[in-house]
Amino acid sequence: MIIKPIRSLGYNGASFIDSPGSPVLSNSSQLIIRNNHLVDKQKVLLLNHEDDLLAKELLRNASTVTALALDFHHYLTLSPHQGGSLNSLFGHCLLEADTFDTVIVHFPKAKSLAPYLFNLAANCLNPGGQLLVTGDNKGGIKSLPKMLPEYFGSCTKLDNARHCLLFAAELIDTAPSMELQDWVSRYTLNTPQGDISICNLVGVFSEKKLDMGTELLLQHLPSLQGRILDFGCGAGVIAACLLKANPQLQLECVDINAMALASCQLTLTANNLWASVYPSDGMAQTEGAFDAIISNPPFHDGLTTTTDIALNFVRDSHHVLKPKGCWQIVANRHLPYSDTIASYFGKVDCVAENNKFKVYRQYK
Length: 364
Known about the structure:
364 residues
């Protein structure tokens, strides 16, 4: 394979490398590569990796790399390249016990997830193993020295470039074992369908009260039956309400975030409800057609607000709906849904609204 250089950051003449046609390394990934001597001949675990091929590039120095993505899209980017010394995984933890010489953590955009990742990293490190943490200056990584648990030694800043930082620390003591239940916030929500118990894992957006948008959506649910999709299920609030109203629904819950999927499953279990919960990048991993799609769709990609996810969702929803199938979402009033909805459904029906949100209900 021909490897071409990409723009250098000017660090002792070092340049960054990427394969033709592959995603450009993120700034924080580039910071790791220009310090790749730190993983020479080592067994490396990469946690919460970004949407690039850093794991593959690390093999120029590391002996093996295991990459655990918490974002399913990021996993899909890397997984075609796995094999041999590269293992690509998706989920909130490693399914098989293993230990590593170095664990590299991309500091999460949801800061509350960071302690979970550090605990997971410590459980995967050999005694005296090396923790490397990289991230955007504006993403909270500057607080890392105060955040690292006591089982890591002093935190040292190794590098700073492209508005990113790289820190290192050594595992000096045994970390507590990983128990998912220890990272769950439990509370009760009063909803139009009755009280439901919520199990929300760190890193998953959820308020301890029903947010205005979701409440408006749940107040105006249509009569549902058959196979239903909850797109962007999050902690499972909408899923639990749908099933509480009608336990006979064949409900499927999809999300791109591993912690959200685990939260949704815990919430369903806590309420003695059942649905099929699985990762999907948009609608790509769903199969067949649905009688209805209900959603408070995400419009954030990391720290950036974007309508692309939601607008693609309108298009893809229309494609997987059965004839006369129902599509209902709640959206911020300022988001430009109307033209896209009209282009696929032929008209725009707003069945409820307040000063912040609109509920759209369309039939195919």
